[in-house]
Specification:
Layout: H1 3-6, E1 8-22, E2 26-33, E3 37-43, E4 63-68, E5 73-81, H2 90-106, H3 114-129, H4 133-147, E6 169-173, E7 177-180, E8 189-192, H5 193-200, H6 207-225, H7 231-239
Parallel strand pairs: 3-5
Antiparallel strand pairs: 1-2, 1-4, 2-3, 4-5, 6-7, 6-8
Helix pairs in contact: 2-3, 2-4, 2-7, 3-4, 4-6, 5-6
């Protein structure tokens, strides 16, 4: 295999996470591909009125992308719409942009996450069809952290095999896990045992679980984001409490 052929990729399944204009007629794309992870590429001439790419490079729609080149920015050669994904609207659309912003900020370049890609695609489908967007976001956030190596331990206390008890109160400490709530408020976020067990089962029907899980995931994500602000999260907070 030649160097040139190794730098060419044909018909790879991907989603556009973000795009912005480049020069007069082109676009810069941040994409999430199933086999190659997060990539940046230039779509030359994509904004020209007669470009074959015009109208194809949409967020939240599965695409088959072909590209070539190496380095930080590849060159898009072609794109083919795959269909099957309903268009997101309203709050679901804002939630989709929130997912994309998480991926843009937490995924390293050129680091494949095939299972996460499949989960992302399924999550977009859930956003389009299910009303409880908060539960959908919590499931994705938890799965994302697990894929990145930061899995939450929700069924036992930190540093032990002692099972979490639904009726007890705990404090969840970043990078440690669930600690018994002994009245020392210096470390960790207060959380009920039932909340953690519900989260382990991806069950967010209990209003207390829904509220506490949102607070817990926000603390954990903020830690891994290293102080970066997610603009879509702030906008969603203004539009609807999720």
């Amino acid at each position: 295999m030649t160097v040139a052929s190794r730098n060419k990729h044909q018909d790879e399944l991907a989603f556009v996470l973000h795009s912005y204009p480049f020069r007069e007629t082109s676009l810069i794309l941040d994409v999430f591909s199933r086999s190659h992870g997060r990539l940046t590429m230039v779509a030359r001439g994509a904004r020209r009125p007669k470009s074959s790419l015009r109208g194809l490079l949409m967020n939240f729609q599965p695409l088959l992308l072909s590209w070539f080149g190496k380095g930080e920015v590849r060159t898009l050669h072609s794109a083919e719409w795959q269909g099957g994904q309903p268009y997101l609207q309203g709050t679901a659309l804002m939630c989709g942009f929130y997912l994309n912003e998480l991926l843009l900020n937490l995924l390293a370049r050129d680091d494949p996450h095939e299972h996460l890609f499949d989960y992302y695609r399924a999550t977009l489908y859930r956003l389009a069809h299910e009303a409880d967007h908060g539960a959908t976001l919590r499931c994705f956030e938890k799965h994302l952290l697990q894929e990145l190596g930061y899995a939450l331990v929700l069924d036992r206390e930190a540093g032990s095999d002692k099972a979490i008890q639904a009726e007890l109160c705990y404090r969840y400490a970043v990078e440690r896990g669930a600690l018994p709530d002994d009245g020392d408020a210096r470390e960790g976020l207060p959380v009920l045992g039932k909340t953690m067990l519900d989260m382990a089962a991806d069950d967010y029907t209990d209003p207390t679980t829904a509220q506490q899980s949102k607070q817990l995931m926000r603390v954990l994500l903020n830690h891994h984001l290293g102080g970066k602000t997610l603009h879509t999260r702030e906008l969603i907070k203004d539009l609807q409490k999720l």
